[in-house]
From TrEMBL, chain A:
This is Large ribosomal subunit protein bL25. Residues 7-92 form the Large ribosomal subunit protein bL25 L25 domain. InterPro entries: Rbsml_bL25/Gln-tRNA_synth_N, Ribosomal_bL25/Gln-tRNA_synth, Ribosomal_bL25_b-dom, Ribosomal_bL25_C, Ribosomal_bL25_long, Ribosomal_L25_dom, Ribosomal_uL5_bac-type. Part of the 50S ribosomal subunit; part of the 5S rRNA/L5/L18/L25 subcomplex. Contacts the 5S rRNA. Binds to the 5S rRNA independently of L5 and L18. This is one of the proteins that binds to the 5S RNA in the ribosome where it forms part of the central protuberance. The keyword rRNA-binding applies. Residues 1-18 have a biased composition (Polar residues). One of its GO terms (molecular function) is 5S rRNA binding. Belongs to the bacterial ribosomal protein bL25 family. CTC subfamily. SUPFAM superfamilies: Ribosomal protein L25-like. Residues 100-179 form the Large ribosomal subunit protein bL25 beta domain. It comes from the Bacteria. It comes from Limnoglobus roseus.
From TrEMBL, chain B:
The keyword Metal-binding does not apply. One of its GO terms (cellular component) is cytosolic large ribosomal subunit. Part of the 50S ribosomal subunit. PROSITE patterns: RIBOSOMAL_L16_2 (PS00701). PANTHER family: 50S/60S RIBOSOMAL PROTEIN L16, LARGE RIBOSOMAL SUBUNIT PROTEIN UL16M. Keywords: Ribonucleoprotein, Ribosomal protein, RNA-binding, rRNA-binding, tRNA-binding. InterPro entries: Ribosomal_uL16, Ribosomal_uL16_bact-type, Ribosomal_uL16_CS, Ribosomal_uL16_dom, Ribosomal_uL16_sf. The gene is rplP. Pfam families: Ribosomal_L16 (PF00252). It comes from Limnoglobus roseus. Binds 23S rRNA and is also seen to make contacts with the A and possibly P site tRNAs. This is Large ribosomal subunit protein uL16.
Amino acid sequence: MSQTVSLATEPRTGTGSRAAQKLRKQGLLPAVIYGHKEETVAVTVNAKELHRAIVTLHARVLDLSVGGKTETVLIRELQWDHLGSEMMHVDFARISKDEKVKVTVPVKLKNAPKSMGGGVLDQPFHQLHIECLATAIPDDITIDITNLTLGQPIHVKELTLPEGVKVLESQEVVVVQLKLPGAEAAAPTPIDGTATGPEVIKPEKKKGDEEDEEKKK
Amino acid sequence: MSLMPKRVKFRKNQRGVARGNQAQKKYNGAIKGNAHRGNYVAYGDYGLQALEGGWLSAESIESGRVTVTRFVSGEGRYYIRVFPHKSVTSIPAETRMGKGKGEPEYWAAVVRTGQILFEVGGLPEQAARDCLARVAYKMPFKCRFVARRPNI
């Protein structure tokens, strides 16, 4: 189960990309706290501490100190830079600890299938949407694939879930399966050189245009 | 056997925006801007991310595809995240200037910094690293190995 981590925040006055850029250079991350029909607050958090909480501790719920009082929040959205290496902005949603929340959790595969039977491992769902108590968000949903065989996929209804966790995807959805390699995406269309190019879409001629052309003639 | 669109509205495209030394590397510089879409691993477990921008020819994509196929066949799956939508024209050698735009020479994908080019799934991390390192060797820009982003 994910831990609850405490973080300190500072109020933020400047808005816009320039102000945010200055904060990031100082090692701070612009953030916003909203929800529970209370006022939206713009704050900053320490980027390193938040990175550690998310990447190392897998925290989903945080205790934030905002202006002297503590608020329990859920990390709702996280924005990354174009390379996905640094965080840009984070959204915190206020929650109460006995509240049910909708979040996504990763699907983790355990062990390897006994026999592949000529198939390849296919995992259509790397994340599942779940509903559970804010204090009981699992780190991941682990699936043991030792007995996975060709033609017998594991559906949502066959998952062993932690207590109080409900998967929001359809019960018939395939989470992991063994698939024949031939069933993969079709190979690219064979084209010899550039002599045969793609078909050019020609605009359809309207009736009015044809009449005009006839008049010109 | 390289990729190209099946149907297009126009045979010839405009060249797009390049940056860098326009005088020396006119039109061949890195593509301006960063990838804000297609910049994270979405289908597989690991991916190959471009750290520079440019045109990725259909032949380069095909050579990457062949490399991945040889490595993952029978073990895992691979995904190609770029498609050559752009036709690149050229004028034949020893031709006088003028007389209009040249004929399409090849097809290319416009790649911006951060774009995921290939993804693999169902392989252990070390195997995925080895596989994508071979693909990176064939790519015309610097690439790096990336995993999925932390789940939120």
